[in-house]
TrEMBL record:
One of its GO terms (biological process) is methylation. Keywords: Methyltransferase, S-adenosyl-L-methionine, Transferase. It holds the Pfam family Dimerisation. Residues 38-127 form the O-methyltransferase dimerisation domain. This is DH200=94 genomic scaffold, scaffold_5086. PROSITE patterns: SAM_OMT_II. InterPro entries: COMT-like (IPR016461), COMT_C (IPR001077), COMT_dimerisation (IPR012967), SAM-dependent_MTases_sf (IPR029063), WH-like_DNA-bd_sf (IPR036388), WH_DNA-bd_sf (IPR036390). The active site is at 249 (proton acceptor).
Length: 348
């Protein structure tokens, strides 16, 4: 019986022949490219696995165990049915790989291993004052995730300011006022971040606040401060200094200029001890080396996040200097002391 070949099969054979996979170099390059694409396709699994661990209470369960916790002990402590117990190992395996847990021997005389927290998972404990749990849950909430499904649609839609508007029909600030759960998560996350940043500034950067008799924290989430309601685009209370943490990255250049002008109006000159203190990322995509890859990628993630959820962006030093100059600030100093973010002091 004669062999029958479809036209599609013939085209596939011709394509393979054209690619000349017999050459090892080309084959390896193609397989590496395939693996790279797979990795990016499934990158969301890291985030969703971490969210699952938080919702199941895994970091707190391990923490309260006070010693390495075996898989059986963890499984028995989780609020899950017996039928799901065999799958816990898979979840923990990916979380170990991504650096949120480690395995350690139960004791010096015992070969059995158990799970322990890392520095990252300690920042996800429920009662940790600096916990990032609320921030994680807000960022991975469907309300903030769904706009990413509208990214290409937004690029083709000239009327919406961002994909969030394309998705929800209103801007983030408007929706936040209507979604109490999301608003609480976000505010708790920002408050926790303020405690973290504040503790570092007080310990390592005391000179930032030297000589100040008054300070206004614009858009503050710190409950220890006296709260004054208002609109930062309209007026900011007068003080020796204003501090803005994660504020300017939410807004476009024109909006940032409005905010900075209001800041300049209410603080004294540098000669009289005045300053604006900005805590934000300073993009630096010129860094080289594997040690910087994760830091650069995270900054670029935040840059995209600002595009999708609000109207702002992360800025490099040149872009920031231009904003300062347009407002009338003639001096600034950037100090890389807050990990991915920097401390920026601005004067006139």
């Amino acid at each position: 019986m004669p062999t029958c070949y479809s036209q599609e099969g013939k085209q596939n054979r011709q394509l393979i022949k054209k690619m000349d996979l017999s050459r090892n170099g080309d084959a390896n390059e193609l397989l590496q490219a395939q693996a790279h694409i797979w990795n990016r396709i499934f990158n969301f699994i890291n985030s969703m696995s971490l969210k699952c661990a938080i919702q199941l209470g895994i970091p707190d369960i391990i923490h309260k165990h006070c010693k390495p916790m075996t898989l059986d002990e963890l499984t028995n402590a989780l609020p899950i049915g017996n039928a799901k117990a065999p799958f816990v190992y898979r979840l923990m395996r990916i979380l170990i790989h991504s650096g949120f847990f480690i395995e350690a021997k139960i004791s010096q005389h015992d070969e059995e291993e158990g799970y322990m927290l890392t520095s990252s998972s300690k920042l996800l404990l429920k009662d940790e004052p600096l916990s990032l749990t609320a921030f994680l849950l807000s960022m991975l909430d469907p309300t903030l995730m769904d706009p990413w499904y509208h990214l290409s649609q937004w690029f083709q839609n000239y009327s919406d300011v961002n994909p969030f508007k394309t998705c929800h029909g209103k801007v983030a600030w408007e929706l936040a006022g209507q979604d109490q759960k999301l608003n609480n998560f976000f505010n708790e996350g920002m408050a926790s971040d303020s405690r973290l940043v504040g503790s570092i500034l007080i310990r390592d950067c005391k000179d930032v606040f030297s000589g100040l008799n008054s300070l206004v924290d614009v858009g503050a989430n710190n409950k220890n401060l006296a709260f004054v309601g208002g609109d930062m685009f309209v007026a900011i209370p007068p003080a020796d200094a204003v501090i803005m943490k994660w504020i300017l990255h939410d807004w476009n250049d024109e909006e940032c200029i409005q905010i900075l002008k209001k800041c300049k109006e209410v603080i004294p000159s540098k000669q009289n001890g005045g300053r604006a203190i900005i805590i934000d990322m300073v993009l630096n995509d010129q860094q080289k080396g594997a040690d910087d890859d994760e830091a650069i990628e995270t900054q670029l993630f935040f840059n995209m996040l600002m595009m999708v959820l609000v109207t702002g962006k992360q800025r490099n030093e040149k872009e920031r200097a231009k904003l300062f100059s347009e407002v009338g600030f003639n001096d600034y100093k950037i100090t890389s002391v807050l990990g991915l973010r920097s401390l920026i002091k601005v004067y006139y």
